TrEMBL record, chains A, B:
It comes from Streptomyces typhae. Coiled coil: none annotated. Residues 3-57 form the HTH lacI-type domain. This is LacI family DNA-binding transcriptional regulator. One of its GO terms (molecular function) is DNA-binding transcription factor activity. The keyword Lipoprotein does not apply. Keywords: DNA-binding, Transcription, Transcription regulation.
Length: 350, 350
DNA sequence: CGAGGCGTAGCAAGCGCTTTCTACTGGGGA
DNA sequence: TCCCCAGTAGAAAGCGCTTGCTACGCCTCG
């Protein structure tokens, strides 16, 4: 049957306790004994029983990463960065921790389910990425869950999500979506655009609201009226950008610029414009958000706001592992950088 | 302190055994008793201890997914698909299984480490994606590990990787990389191209070799000499495509087409051509592989081979959960579909 | 020469759950 | 009326590991 610690102990002629200590390396063991034990481990092809070990030690080496959609590079990049920092010393046997990437699909129910699952596994840490749902009951439920996770000893880090009042000891690395949105629209207004369409993300999400608010702030500051007909909501996908662009064109033929909720949506917008025979930025300028890797390969290259996804994820990972100090107050704002490229230009003259 | 089964039992005035049975739902419990137990669970905010439960039951609800790079949509899409099928009935408490996505970075050492970690956790199943390393010792080590995982009760599914002799009971869903490569180059040759550059992936990987072999097969079938100077190797990234394209142009100014190892590499190639002032496909045709979502948004849209990543991942997930029959012989080949788009055309006339 | 330490190793008590086996009920058939 | 069985609940034995405490040398210092 399966080899247990006791088998190894027997073969090495030591007690199980000694084997455990050799494996965990947190207690002095004579070199000769250690050798003998390690050889026995090797001979028997022994693999530690994780659950048993977690139970006895009341800790686990699982780190949960919650993402909306792992197929979206926005989340993939963050998840990858978190994971790259998850490993390393300070841990238990092997020093390796496992990252559990959980796909919530943006649904608060699934988010809650996964948090419970992670709590069940006594996860060492949990990193929650992506914007939050702005629904009071859900927010409270998730906040409560996060607090309980924290109480149970898991370190909780929010990455790209505003802090939750309900989970005071969770560290939050928040993206400056509002500021980014503001700068993007400022840029377009500066070029002379006045009729700017906005393709927002799904309603009820903090990310969507903040980016949109930045846009509106810029309009207000420039004294440009915010025509509600020029703002459309939809999911964060290409299709939404495509459809919304056609709709915007229908509503406002004099449109000279489109700001999209993110780069993927922007690509959809570009496709729609091309299909309509409009040139970018000659007829209509387009801007995205996030600066995902493919944005630079769009033709023309996409003007967008670069979010340091990798850096933010890595930092979240380090904080989750206790390898980096928490920001003061447990909150840090991560700023985006405006990347002006070919997809935006001065509006055509009438 | 933390609430345990016993606490719930006490509050519901039943034995711990009964609580366990209510939670697992695999033993008759009178409705009234169940009610009482569930209320107690709710009142106390009880969360099952995963490690303890896994230890006692000798199973776990973890499913491992090994990927080379989670930030790459190629893997993100598959991981997402696997995960979408991982959930559901047939499982234990809650019926929810957790997908553990492990980033190996393509390194066999990390691959091995993660497999050990999964073995440690007594994973219910393991899905390994991406091509294999063609290094005998490593292949043997990984094969052996997979076999032992299988012996220990984990279901093992390879997705997009050729079967391993060392792990006979692992199911393999293999991509027809050779056939896809063949069709892609056939298409180019059919258009009249004769000087075709090939930007391959890293050496020593099955994916790289198979795609390249398909290309060479097509050349041979058409009686076109395979000039070794026109094949370059590099990583699966944009940079590699960019650099290799410049090098190809240097080596062979009469080049009229470039086949890239995958879409990302192809995008790099396009960027290099644009920077050189060459038009696509007027001066040089470009083709990719995989048909990742952004490929259609390239300008011109990329000719490529569509791999049904989502379908394959979903199928792998279902097989891993025992919800779909294994293919005969444990091996199935997944074919790609040639997507002819704007980036390829007839070569310019000299 | 004896006492106190230090360096190692073992004992044994759990960690919180699952599950087998046993026990108790009430109802129906002989 | 008695027995047996179906239905339900409990007792208790682990699952394989960690770790506090104890034990045993042997060395060094007084």
């Amino acid at each position: 049957m399966t080899v247990t610690l006791a088998d190894v102990a027997a073969r090495a002629q030591v007690s199980p306790a000694t084997v455990s200590r050799v494996l965990n390396g947190n207690y002095p063991v004579a070199a000769a004994t250690r050798e003998r034990v390690l050889r026995a481990v090797d001979d028997l092809d022994y693999v530690l029983n994780g659950p048993a070990s977690s139970l006895a030690a009341a800790t686990s080496d699982l780190v949960g990463i919650l993402v909306n959609d792992i197929a979206d590079p926005f989340f993939g990049i963050m998840a990858s960065a978190v994971q790259s920092e998850i490993t390393g010393p300070g841990g238990r046997a092997g020093g390796e921790r496992m990252a559990v990437v959980c796909n919530t699909g943006g649904s608060p129910e699934r988010e809650l389910t996964y948090l419970t699952l992670l709590q069940r596994q006594r996860a060492a840490a949990v990193v929650v990425t992506g914007g939050a749902i702005e629904d009071a009951p859900h927010a409270a439920a998730i906040g409560g869950k996060l607090r309980r996770l924290g109480d149970a000893g898991s370190r909780v880090v929010l990455c790209g999500r505003p802090p939750t009042g309900a989970a005071p000891d969770a560290v939050a690395l928040t993206f400056d979506n509002r500021g980014g949105g503001r700068r993007l629209t400022d840029h377009l207004l500066g070029l002379g655009h006045r009729r700017v369409g906005y393709i927002a993300g799904p309603t009820e999400r903090t990310t969507t609201r903040h980016r949109l608010e930045g846009h509106q702030e810029a309009l207000a500051a420039a004294g440009v009226a915010d025509d509600p007909l020029l703002t459309l909501h939809g999911p964060y996908d290409r299709r939404s950008g495509y459809d919304a662009t056609l709709e915007l064109l229908r509503r406002e033929p004099r449109l000279t610029a489109i700001v999209a909720a993110n780069d993927t949506v922007a690509l959809g917008a570009c496709a729609a414009l091309r299909d309509r025979g409009l040139s970018i930025p000659g007829d209509v300028s387009v801007a995205g958000f996030d600066d995902l890797p493919f944005s630079i390969d769009a033709v023309p290259a996409l003007t967008t706001v670069r979010l340091p996804l990798h850096e933010a994820g890595a930092r979240a990972g380090r904080i989750a592992m206790g390898r980096e100090e928490e920001p003061p107050g447990g909150i840090a704002t991560v700023h985006g950088e405006l990347m002006v490229r070919g997809s935006t230009g001065a509006p055509r003259q009438h």
